[in-house]
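Q: Predict the assembly, please.
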Amino acid sequence: MIQTLNRRASVYGALFAMIPKMFMAYQLWFWAGLVMNIISITILYFFWDAIYANSTAISGLTREQTINYILLAFFFMPLVGNDLLWEFGSNLREGLMIHHLLRPVNFQMMNYAQQLGGLVTRMVFQLPIMLLAVFLFDLKFPSDLNTWLAFLISALLGFTVMFFFSWVLACMAFYTTEIWGLGVLIEGITIFFSGSLVPLAMMPEWLRALVLSVPFAQALAVPVGLLSGITPLSDAPRIWLIQIVWIIGMWILSNLVFHFAVRKITVQGG
Amino acid sequence: MTRYIDLYWLFLIQRLKTLMEYRVSFILGAASTISLQAASIAAVWVVMQKVPSLNGWSYNEVLMVYGFVTLTKSINHMFADNLWTLGRVYIRTGGFDRFLVRPIDPLFHLLADRFCQDGVGNFIVGLALVIKTSVDLGVEWTLLKVLMFVVAVISGGFIFIALNLITAVSAFWVVDSVPVTRLVFDNHLFAQYPLTIYPRAISILLTWIIPYGFASFYPASYLLGREIGNVAWGAPFIAAFLMFIGYRFWQFGLRYYSGTGS
Amino acid sequence: MSVIEVNDLSKVFQVPKKEPGLLGAAKGLFRPRYEDKKAVNQLNFQVEAGEIVGYIGVNGAGKSTTIKMLTGILMPSGGTVRVLGRDPHKQRVDNAREIGVVFGQRTQLWWDLALIESLNLIAKIYDVPPARYKAILEQFTETLELGDLLNVPVRNMSLGQKMRSELAAALVHQPKVVYLDEPTIGLDLIVKERIRDFIKTECGSKGMTVMLTTHDLGDIEELCQRVIIIDSGHVIYDGPIETIKKRFGKFREITFETVEKAKALELPEGAEILKAEDRKVQVRFDRTVSTASKVAGAVMNQIEVKDFSLSEPDLADIVKQIYNGALDMEAK
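A: Predicted assembly structure:
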């Protein structure tokens, strides 16, 4: 994984050094990305600020708690990333899938390492906006080491749940070329069901049950709940256990679905 | 003039025929844009079950604002989507020269070449939202309000298109104009909610500088009988002004392109 | 009045100066320095109605820049260009109505549409009256054998089919001036022949003025009576093709790969050594004076030959030689 990071870093380095115009385009994208993020959190902040205009607590959560949760959920969105669909799509389109499967490396583990590396990179790129939120919107991080530890463990577990689940979704690439449309569809579902827009506590009973019955929330709402202090640390072991059960279930499902999907191209031809 | 209308119609038919071939893509495209809307709307619904007022705006009123912005942005999405591709698909590959060699306006050609069916999903959702919320809120559709609605939608659509055009022209210089367009376009997200929830600076931004407010907040205010809504009558002037700037800037970009090649 | 009039035409580009290395790239980012690149420099020529002119030169000589100015895409930096009496840039639309363009590598047809639908769209863009369109379509269907292709989208066509479709699309509005850029590139010989035939008959019979840019000398030989050679932005030859054929068409080159190192060789009359290095000898001979077998025989008698190949002199060679004064520059 460090290798992947180094490779990425050196590739970016080479690009920066040799092609001024591409660098300029990258700069444009960097600023555009930053502005996009600023706009998003500004809207989030003022929306919730207005919601709390006449209340001190909603569903037991104070204004500070909620805003903190929402902002943290925004930053940790990379935890529910869905790159695999695009990966599978481009691999299949370019006929590379067979090559990957013939290699003596476990395809799934290789992707896991890649995605984990990608996650770390993305989180690094989230830093500027995180800092801005701390200064502009009074974002607070817990100072307690135990909370951080509980969060990190839960985040990793949750990320893994989501990885295997994404794997299942990504297998749709075997059955259709409409990757873009599917990707956007999944994005919409993910944004809501990950619990990034509304704290779970505010959802009506039935909705919360629904949200917790699908994997998305395990990767975002659950760990961020710990980090934001909404979920007490005492719940952490139980939470981890649930996440581990999810991992096992998703792992089995992902391999099953993949097995059948691969059969499709090996039997029918890509 | 009629020639251009005939021509656009022909372009449109051909494009739809092509899209019909990709039926799955067609449906998915529509469904995908709706899913993003649904996520936001669902979130707002959940929250406003607990808190019935957002800065003095009820759930249905908020939804009306949201519906307006979705509706107006869909017009840009449907008719001017090709502007995003100007740099990557046409200028970078030299395909833009083809437009310059044909006896029709190159901007027209660029826009006509791609009607984006994904926008239809947004159009339907936006329209449905505005109508439904107006019914639920008991809005009286007087002649004046109907007029406002039509004017606002058309003007709002052109405001989106104009801002899209202005930023897309940067492609003549930087080729990949997409980040420039996004820098401006993403500000429309502010206009999904009533501008009153934001500090003054932001509502000024969205009224006078990047006037997306005229595409949603002001017309909705008018329909809801709020005084600030009268400002909405300014929408067509703002739209016309922006389109004028956009077209002049386009011509400027064209002159640069034919001066320096690519 | 000539159909195409080019007078002292120039085009200067501002190209960023690229310096090597990391430091150079950094400098280029913060304080880019530009230098003038004269793509076209004081170009002069005229083309009369009905001529089919070959416009040739090596890559980077300024051909496509010239064509871009003739078609109105680029604005000249200096001099004037007139097509059918108009300034193609200032009167872009009027000029566009009367020209047809084939960009060899880039299609003007819509990727996903059936050919007939692309043609319908183009006919509408150029305002071709329906009756005339119908007649032309019938004619092209026959002469270009488009019958089966009409319902095929471009993405499913072979290169040859694409080119035939491309020509139909470019000529459907019966333009007065046609610019063909590499129309036979990548095609096999039989298809090339058909394309050339079509161009000759269609453009010839309708009195169209054609400017043909190509690297294929076969195209030039078959289609053009006149050739303009451009190098580094100006004309170095403008005259009948006969002269070029006479001077260069009679030459053939044989490249020998030898076992031993090259040494001095005695060659029959009409043959001369162009290049001799290490284990390769390049010999040029005049076909009218000697024969391939005589030359090859002579060489193989004197040195052991591993392999050899026979070729025509290529355009780059010809241009180089012309540039070095091997040909009298004949202004028309």
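Chain B has a mean pLDDT of 91. Chain B has one domain: 2-260.
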